[in-house]
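Input/output pair, single chain:
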Amino acid sequence: MYDMTEGKIASQIFRFTIPLLIGNVFQQFYNMADAIIVGQFVGKGAMAAVGISFPVMFVAVSCIIGVTMGISVLVSQFFGAKEIERIRRTVSTGYIFTFFMSIALMFVGIALNDFLLTLLRTPADVHDDAKLYLFIIFLGVPFSFGYNLLASVLRGVGDSKTPLYLLIFSTIVNIFLDLFFVIVLKQGVGGAAIATVISQALAFFLGIYFMIKKNTIFRLHRKWVFDKQLFKQSILIGLPAGVQHAIVGIGMMCLFYIVNRFGADVLAGYTAAMRIESFAMMPIFNFGMAITVFVGQNLGAGKLNRVHKGVVSTLVMTLSMCVITSSILGLFPDYLISIFNRDVKVIEIGSEYLRIVSGFYFFFAIMSVYTGVLRGAGDTFIPMLVAIFSQFILRVPLSAYLSTVCGTKGIWWGVPIAWGAGMVFLYIYYKVGYWKRKVKLIHTPLENALES
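Output:
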């Protein structure tokens, strides 16, 4: 656990972010292993199948993002206010709901698998592999949901190291199992999906063991309760965040729909570029997560002045990292794409995307920091509205139109334009300051919570 309500602000945020960053390096290795191994040992069609599956799963995972975000904000604020009993009740409530929700989504995902791929106009030579990959991945949804909630809870109390250790273990297992199922057993994309599910399950069960046996805050003494009041509060905070992630995922699916018009080669190149971009954006996401926890704890402790100083420090650190990542992706895109597949057309398309988009990562970085601030305060509705506007009013329509004028380059240019608009709106809202009124949860008497 890590109390961020006292001490040097910049060093606290940086120290909290480093385990997140290392963990997400492994998370991206985890996510990229399937694409790299099937791309190199099965072919570009198999890699495209894994890629087209990503936005579908992103939308599915968005269903749990709302719950985990709400739970994490409550935990961080209660931790800042030293309300330990509320933390326990919040964790118990979150896991009871997550269990039933994940089972329901698993069956819905399996039932709609083929329909979703058809809706995306998945190329015929990719469709069957993508369908098999998604079917197996959906079977592992309960493990994925369980782990994500676990990691969010731990981060809410300032523990970014335990999720890191679990990710390192899970990533190593996934890579070895990928190699075994794909190369040794010749199971193709199905084998890669099985490896992913097994490694997710192991990370989840190990995490549960840690929470129950090793940390006194999370020892529920076998008394699992579903607190209706805390559940309502977590949903009020988390639902807009979940909707926001779902909107981003649907926007990604719409882009894949546009990309699929250009064939499997363009799809494979875009898939490789997206995997590399997810790596490059890790510092942005991690600083956004860090400022969320920092804001939650300090608002819970009533220290608004530290919040403002934390925002400035986080912006400086995030933008500094953007300079490095944008430079690398802009200078060496061909080499990076070739890690996934060495087909000339695939490299050309993937490099084209990286050269255009990487120069505008600072738009996304600023947007991410202010989104993290608002989430830490429990104000998740405005970021949701910004996501709706930037995705469906700007990004998707612009990409669709420009693709008819400029080809694939037109698709990519819609991305930074949407980021720029989102950045401006969130900055203005932050400066206006309405988000400061959202921190009311910790002022409810504990006795009222225990009556629910």
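DSSP finds 17 helices and no strands in the chain. Residues 440-452 have pLDDT under 50 and may be disordered.
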